Amino acid sequence: MSDPGRPLWSGRFSKQPALEAAVLGRSLSFDVRLAPQDVKVSIAHVLGLRDAGLIAAEEAETLERALLEVGEEIAADRFAFDAADEDVHSAIERGVTERLGEVGAKLHAGRSRNDLVVTDLRLWLLDAWGRVEAGVVRVIRALVRHAREHAETVMPGTTHGRAAQPVTLGHHLLAHAWALVRDLDRFQGWAGRASVSALGAGALATSTLGLDPTAAARRLGFADRFANSIDAVSDRDFAQEFLADAAILGTHLSRLAADLLRWSDEALGWVEIDEAYATGSSMMPHKRNPDVAELVRAKAGRLAGHLVALSSTLQGLPLGYHRDLQEDKEPLFDCVDTLQAVLPALAGCVETASFRLEPMRRAARDSGLYATDLAEALVVAGVPFREAHRRVGELVARLEAEGRSLADLSGPEWAELDLPEGPALLDPDRAVRARGVPGGPSPESVRGQIEALERRLAARDGEGRGP
Ligand code: ARG
Questions:
Q1: pLDDT digits 0-9 by tens, 194-234
Q2: How far is the CA of 120 from the centre of ligand 1 (A)?
Q3: What CATH number does residue 71 fall under?
Q4: DSSP symbols for 215-271
Q5: Structural domain boundaries, residue 186
Q6: pTM exceeding the 0.85 threshold for the entire prediction
């Protein structure tokens, strides 16, 4: 049935492929991970052939059994791959045909590797998303736990990396959590669009065999079947979109890592990264380096690169299947592998991090942080803001020239300012409570945000996933 050592398409060929051509074209080394999906999709196809009356019920059972066997052998690393197996699809078909002879040779009727590969890949990616999602949720939960504990911990908020206005640590941590919640939403939207079966599209024009793509989609658990067979085999925007969402997620993880790195800098010492998430130096005995956070920060580049790689492959490609499309898989696989390495490591790093309150509290006493509060108090007292800004600015400059700060203002100097709150304006706790608006840094707002986040996560738990 199959010609040993020759590709399954070799009928009209008199020559063997050149070795270097075969080496370039072979995707088995990476697409072998689609084997479970390929078996599943092949079984759905077999049942379709049976329902169309093209094979007998017993033949369908035999084929299904052989497909499962081949799948198990591949999973257990017992399957004998052949040098002529171009990809996992050819290998599985050959394995089945070698077992079953004529019945095996019926498997590929009405299908093509073009509809097969894209259906396999969609299933694989929807499944992989479930694992990535769990990792994102774990990072969010770690942030929320610290935020709950530090709803009242005042820290200097920065703009341009310089002390700006007081915030709470909980508020800053939740800023990262909200970004990650948007990532979850983005991926969820993607999953809805990606849940489309291409099986039955064939090479590009379906087939003459009376197969039912709707039934195939239902069998595979997809939300829908293709609407257009040319689009079905050409479309890789589900892959591109996944990589785009992952690139954005990577950016968010990178920025979280960057904050941890800044805060753990010896100069600030606001957070201590647990030893289990640090490494030593081969030369300097005293070092404890925050490599995990650094690597998370760096991986964003790799994830963005995968999106650029696939986008560059796709742009300008006419519709229909082209072998160019084989290039879709490695970026996707590496993207998922990268996220599966990054997310648990970052989650662990955040979970075990301990915040050092004394240096943070000391930094929050930097009186410059409260200059805006002074200006706003003047506004409440009726001074136009621009005038208030100028007055406080001049006061800060004069104090600085005298080697003093707002914290050194004397009683008479406060009296001169004519602000009823007086030195209390420099109190960190008052300053964050005074910013009580929802979405602001006050402890009350932080608690409200946590409740809202918990509701969002709980609503997700109940959501149905793709196939
Ligand atoms: N290995 C191929 C891929 O990943 C499968 C499809 C091959 N189709 C073809 N017409 N040569 O894209």
A1: 999 999 999 999 999 999 999 999 999 999 999 999 999 99
A2: 12
A3: 1.10.275.10
A4: HHHHHHT-SEE-S-HHHHHH--HHHHHHHHHHHHHHHHHHHHHHHHHHHHSTTT--E
A5: 114-199+227-362+457-461
A6: yes
